Amino acid sequence: MIFRSSGILNDPVCEWHTSYVLILAENRGRRRQPKQLWRPEQIPDYAVGETGRQNTLRIAIHNKGCWHYVRNKIMNYGNIKKYDIADGPGVRVSLFVSGCRHHCKGCFNAETWDFSYGQPFTSETETEILEALAPDYIQGFTALGGEPFEPENQPVVAALMKKIREHYPDKDIWCYTGYLYDVDLIPGGRVFTDVTLEMLSYIDVLVDGEFIEAEKDISLQFRGSKNQRIIHLQ
């Protein structure tokens, strides 16, 4: 089995084979000791849920003597805006996911850096978003956060975007990321995973680059700082 990790334990991005995985219970970002090792095919069903209040089950793997965090079995989100007019053209439904490693100085949404912030994204959340997108006056959907392209968040966000494409092929999809499209989101990039290309295929417009406070410009449309780019993917 091949896993890919962004190497949050200060290791470079790498890909490897492994025989064992580790389930970690995290509480507000503080990693706890694992209780049991599992082979990949033995990961229990309850790993999809939570371990308790503010706790989330996460997975790590062993490589070269270190445990590497791989992905969250669930994704949290901080907020859903159903009438957003700031994060893309027209009136939009916007999802603010939880979890971000950029930690940009001056970030307007710093509480969403924490992967455990907010509440779990469930099938009910997905239905709520799809229903909110139904009115004709809603132009599209925007994913931001937090960081939609954190490896832990990509599977859930990609699946949601796929549903939106299927239900509303004429509505547009925007996504904000602190990662660079032509550096981090390509094969071999820092956060490239087995669903990155699929996720990009659903996105009409990508706004990339970290927010840089020294380059902040309030006259910019749909961007916070001059370094950020609006990239049309479709």
Describe what you observe in this structure.
This protein has 234 residues and is an alpha+beta fold. The protein has 3 helices and 14 strands. It has a 7-stranded mixed sheet, covered by helices on one side. The chain is globular, with a radius of gyration of 18 Å.
Q: What pattern of helices and strands is seen along the backbone? A: EEEEEEEEEEHEHEHEE
Tell me the quaternary state: single chain
How many whole angstroms does the radius of gyration measure?
A: 18 Å
Record the strand order, biggest sheet.
10-8-9-11-12-13-14
* Contiguous uncertain segments of 5+ residues: 1-72
Mean pLDDT value: 76
List the total number of helices: 3
End-to-end distance: 33 Å
Q: Report the major sheet.
A: 7 strands, mixed
Strand content: 25-35%
- The residue fraction in helices comes out at 10-25%
Count of DSSP E strands? 14
Principal-axes shape call: globular
Structural class: alpha+beta
Quick description:
The chain has 234 residues and is an alpha+beta fold.
List keywords for this structure.
13% helix, 14 strands, globular, five-stranded antiparallel β-sheet, 234 residues, 32% strand, single chain, alpha+beta
How are the secondary structure elements laid out?
Elements: E1 2-5, E2 14-17, E3 21-27, E4 30-31, E5 37-38, E6 55-63, E7 66-72, E8 76-84, E9 91-97, E10 119-120, H1 123-132, E11 138-145, H2 154-167, E12 172-177, H3 196-202, E13 205-208, E14 229-232
Parallel strand pairs: 9-11, 11-12, 12-13
Antiparallel strand pairs: 1-2, 3-4, 3-5, 3-6, 6-7, 8-9, 8-10, 13-14
